[in-house]
Amino acid sequence: MDSERAQSAHERVLAELRRSIVSGELAADSQHSIYGLADRFGVSRTPVREAVLKLADAGMVTIDRNRGIRIRGLSVRDIREIFDLRLLLEVPGAALAARHGDAGLSERLREHLARMRDAITGDDLAAFAQHDRALHTEIAEVADNSRLTRQLGALRDATQAMGASTMNQTRGLDQIEREHVPIIDAIERGDEKAAASAMREHLVETARILMTQIAAVTGEELPDPWPREG
């Protein structure tokens, strides 16, 4: 029972810390002690340390020895590096899903797409993001590689750390939803080339928008060309 309570406390602190970072409640570049965070969440230092280690792995915080943690912001370089990796992992992943996917995969993907449409109707950004993420996870899981799935989750966490999102900003939810349709259509047809191409187009569009948004704040130059070919 004690181990169950400890796990529950760790999960709660992890969720609350993530929410506080995404919402901006814990501002970029701000520093926080483990003691202060433990008081904030009404727990011992142990679950805070465990949560902080996971967030550090996701790139959401950095750990400063003897000074607690520092909340990270995002740079154009961060986005480029994250999406370089996502392109390397998710583009061939979409092709693999087209090659090995079955009716069950198609049904789950269509269900997430339907829930995304429901979220648009209900103006529910959180639900939309949840099913968007789940749809990408379903495709990645066809590879049957838990390390791959965890890595993709960490990459998405990193971009969301400071609320980095194209949703309801430079493109609407309906546009994002439509970008997933050709990916799913190609997977259902078993068309590996088309699935990879549609996934690549979707990821490149997302990355370019995010880099442009961040550059407007930081004054950084955009990478040119990007992505690199060959």
What does this structure look like?
The chain is mostly helical and 230 residues long. It has nine helices and three strands. It has helices spanning 2-23, 34-41, 45-57, 76-100, 103-121, 125-141, 146-160, 173-189, 192-218, and strands spanning 31-32, 61-64, 68-71. Strands 1-3-2 form a three-stranded antiparallel β-sheet. Strand 2 (61-64) and strand 3 (68-71) form a beta hairpin. The longest helix is centred in the C-terminal third of the chain and has 27 residues, at 192-218. The termini are far apart.
In short:
The protein is mostly helical. The chain has 9 helices and 3 strands. Helices cover 71% and strands 4% of the residues.
Low-confidence stretches: none
Q: Provide the β-strand percentage band.
A: under 5%
Beta-strand segment tally: 3
Radius of gyration: 19 Å
Main sheet specs:
3 strands, antiparallel
Number of helices: 9
Structural class: mainly alpha
Shape: globular
Order of strands, main sheet, comes to: 1-3-2
